[in-house]
Specification:
The chain has helices at residues 26-33, 69-77, 109-119, 124-138, 153-164, 183-198, 210-216, 234-244, and strands at residues 7-19, 40-53, 58-62, 84-89, 93-96, 171-175, 202-206, 219-224, 227-233, 259-261, 266-274, 283-284, 290-298, 304-314, 320-325, 334-336, 340-346, 354-364, 367-380. By secondary structure, it is of the alpha/beta class.
């Protein structure tokens, strides 16, 4: 039997079937069941991919968007089955792919933890012993008996991360999910991941951040159009990859643009960012509270109770630096019968002055009523604590004679 933590891909291929038609009527759907009127093609996500990782290795999968990195992780997690070749893993696997996938909205935080632990093969006694640590790391001790449908996105993700990293896996799969919660919690996430590496756990890491790759991984596999192009020391592979891509590391596919969605059963009628005296503003000094004044309304019908008012602050590239809501702060949830006014007053300690994007949300009862993500730009003023860039070396070159 292989040692726990062993990972092996042997000539792995994976093909997707693409359907190009959309069924509009019941008759079209029935006809398409018999292959009539359907246009389809095959897309090869991976082709003949082979690699193996020994227990205790920390390996990064790098490459352009669509190269097959996330697909490889999903094969390792057992979400996909290969079209050809074999995928072998040994030991318990924890997947940080989509945090919180598998949580049931009607169950409490504790019940979801127990359920997911059972799915991972842990006994009730083992999960009860882990419960305080899971709740403590996620900073959700007061909310473990609350149904997760009332959780904010940040609370949901923190619980998912804490659960996945608390069950002592032999193999940890990570796909661009380290931006969980605010900056302080992100640092704790990095420390926990580093702890796994020091304890000899196998880590397979997909990231668009070369610094994160270098700090966590000693080896990298470069995937290019579904094939292995290079496999070796992380720094060497990164250098070759950057040279081939013109010195640019691809950014995550999700573009940071203002977005808005929800049922609008309850909605923001107006939102104003202002100073404490009510004056609208977009720039705030480091000692100046940011006040978000909202007018919340609802459509016709009975009052809507248990509404959660949330906020989030992001860097321009979309990285979340902090988030929260009235539930997490221990405040009463909202009851919206008609129109009402509510304010969120943020007292911020600005360690990194610059431009940010504020988002707000109305959720609850398992429903996204109204989300406004990256909608409200603001600038936080202050002195920088460190020089943002330092010069390592400089050369002046000329081809003239």
């Amino acid at each position: 039997m292989a040692t726990p933590g062993t990972v092996s891909f042997t000539r792995v291929g994976l093909d997707y079937r693409l359907y190009r038609d959309r069924n509009v009527t019941l008759m079209q759907t029935v006809m398409n069941l018999f292959g009539r009127g359907t246009s389809r093609s095959m897309f090869t996500a991976l082709s003949g991919v082979s690699f193996s990782f020994e227990p205790g290795e920390a390996v990064a999968l790098i490459g352009a968007n669509g190269a097959g990195k996330s697909t490889s992780l999903k094969l390792l997690a057992g979400i996909y089955r290969p079209t050809s070749g074999t995928v072998c893993t040994e030991g318990r696997i924890a997947s940080l792919l989509d945090l919180g996938v598998g949580f049931h909205p009607e169950l409490t935080g504790s019940e979801n933890v127990m359920l997911n632990g059972a799915l991972l093969g842990l006994s009730q006694g083992e999960m009860k012993a882990l419960m305080p640590g899971i709740a403590g790391f996620a900073m959700l001790e007061r909310f473990m008996d609350t149904p997760v449908k009332y959780y904010s996105a940040g609370m949901f993700m923190r619980l998912g991360f804490s659960l996945a990293t608390s069950v002592d896996p032999d193999i940890l799969l990570i796909d661009e999910v380290l931006a969980v919660g605010d900056a302080a919690f992100q640092n704790r996430c990095h420390e926990r991941i580093s702890g796994f590496r020091e304890r000899g756990k196998t880590i397979v890491f997909v990231s668009h951040d070369p610094l994160a790759v270098k700090s966590l991984c000693e080896r990298a596999v470069w995937l290019d159009a579904g094939r292995v192009r290079m496999d070796g020391p992380a720094e060497s592979v990164l250098d070759e990859y950057l040279a081939a891509s013109g010195g640019r590391f691809p950014k995550p596919e999700a573009a940071v643009t203002p977005r808005e969605w929800g049922t609008r059963e309850v909605f923001f009628e107006s939102v104003t960012i202002c100073r404490s005296d009510g004056t609208p503003a977009r720039e705030f000094r480091s000692d100046e509270p940011v006040q978000v004044n909202t007018v919340i309304s609802k459509n016709s019908g009975p009052p809507v109770d248990n509404v959660i008012l949330g906020y989030s602050l992001h860097r321009p590239d979309g990285e979340t630096v902090l988030s929260g809501n009235n539930l997490e702060s221990g405040l009463p949830l909202l009851s919206v019968a008609g129109g009402r006014t509510d304010s969120i007053v943020l007292k911020l300690r600005t360690l990194e002055p610059g431009n940010y994007l504020l988002g707000i949300s109305l959720t609850g009862n398992g429903t996204d009523y109204h989300w406004q993500d990256y909608m409200y730009p603001l600038s936080l003023l202050g002195d920088r604590k460190a020089v943002p860039i330092t010069l390592e070396s400089v050369e002046f070159r000329s081809d003239s004679h």
